[in-house]
Amino acid sequence: MNETIMRQLGFGDKVDLIKRGLCPSCKQPVGTFRDALSRREYGISGFCQACQDRMFVEPKDPCEDCVHTGTKYCKEECPI
Fold this sequence. Notes:
Layout: H1 3-8, H2 12-19, H3 36-45, H4 49-56
């Protein structure tokens, strides 16, 4: 991250958060990372693991493990 450029582009508040060990997205302490790729992404974006997951991980299909899959309750009528 080039701090001077980031500040010139209007991201000074985000730079300040990162310098304080806070995620620029959720403003929470950064914490630990799942793997080397996540740590590398932190070096690029400053995002904590939770924000990286929200940004890059596809949400799980709620029907994937549902006991109603393939029954009359599947999809629109599902009580879950």
